[in-house]
Write a structure and sequence with these properties.
The chain is mainly alpha-helical and about 325 residues long. About 80% of the residues lie in helices and about 0% in strands.
């Protein structure tokens, strides 16, 4: 029960007692007058998503260190999400999706499961802050795949931004140093697979009714894991069971907060706050596992987030210019 007690104490001390001081500090750093109410709301949901993602990462690493397999952890995670979403929203979960949509859901679930398994299996050798920093590169791979698969236009600023982002990855991985870990490639592989799930979502064109989409995603993930859990099953202790159920609850809110943040805000506003994942993870990993974030990890993650934020800014600027051009044409 120690780890559960830690999370409740952390949430109380860090998020409630220090909320007032933290809000004043953030308000001094960021000029919130530049943001409207919807933008601030999207930022709040995105920061909450970052906190929940960090909780899931730390709890999953703890569960794996306690002797549970990643397959069993993911089974409980997706199973908890399935049951909870069905109980709270069962009237709106039907009808079942069509065959073409089912294939997309299954494909997305498969790539997500493999990516998530790779990410957490790498934590045996890599620290959580380093793995989290590398995960920021997912949007870079999404852009490349969008150009290759969706035939999107390769714009001039992509070259500079992508080069800058991959340079940030090299700083984090440090392939020429003695501290280089080959497991870093597992995290990079996970990022590539996560980017494939982003492309699948984009091709499906699913924006509304995200609770239903999250339920289908959790259901198909759970069903795919069932055949593999037999060979890796370990009867969990009460503490392990509570941890896995807690991961499942955090997983639900993590998916919903991220989806809602993107639905009411823009990437230009949200993307710079991705760094909060590294802040939360670094604090939790230090308290739970004694892991200390390295300076190259901080520098590399800042470079990656800067590159992805720059792309988001340029895309928003281009979209505004296109709208202005279309409006001008209609007036003329």
């Amino acid at each position: 029960m120690t780890v559960i007690k830690f999370f409740f104490e952390f949430f109380y001390n860090y998020c409630i007692l220090k909320f007032t001081c933290g809000w004043i500090a953030i308000k001094n750093l960021i000029n919130f007058e530049n943001y409207n109410g919807r933008s601030l709301e999207s930022i709040a949901y995105f920061v909450l998503h970052c906190f929940l993602f960090s909780c899931i990462s730390v709890l999953t690493k703890y569960a794996m260190q306690s002797g549970l397999s990643i397959v069993q952890i993911l089974l409980f995670q997706t199973g908890t999400a399935c049951v909870a979403l069905f109980l709270f929203n069962r009237k709106n979960l039907m009808p079942f999706p069509k065959k073409k949509s089912i294939l997309a859901h299954v494909t997305r679930a498969f790539f997500w499961l493999v990516a998530t398994a790779l990410f957490f299996m790498s934590l045996d050798k890599i620290s959580l802050p380093s793995a989290t920093a590398l995960s920021f590169s997912t949007p870079l791979f999404t852009i490349i795949l969008a150009i290759v698969i969706l035939k999107e236009v390769m714009r001039k600023y992509y070259y500079m931004a992508l080069s800058l982002g991959f340079f940030g990855m090299l700083i984090i991985v440090q392939p020429a140093s003695d501290s280089f870990q080959t497991q870093s490639f597992m995290v990079i592989g996970a990022c590539i697979l996560w980017s494939i799930t982003d492309i699948i979502i984009k091709r499906m064109g699913i924006i509304s009714d995200m609770i239903k989409i999250t339920w289908y995603f959790s259901l198909f993930s759970f069903l795919m894991l069932l055949p593999f859990v037999v060979s890796t099953w370990v009867t969990p202790t009460f503490t392990q069971l509570c941890v896995m159920l807690l991961i499942g609850v955090f997983f639900i809110f993590n998916m919903l907060t991220l989806t809602y943040a993107y639905s009411i805000g823009t990437l230009t506003v949200i993307q710079p706050f991705a760094f909060m994942s590294l802040v939360f993870t670094s604090v939790m990993a230090y308290i739970a596992f004694g892991e200390i974030i390295k300076f190259p990890t901080i520098v590399g993650s800042i470079i990656i987030i800067t590159s992805t934020s720059f792309i988001a800014y340029q895309e928003r600027k281009r979209h505004k210019e296109w709208l202005a051009y279309r409006i001008g044409e209609e007036i003329l």
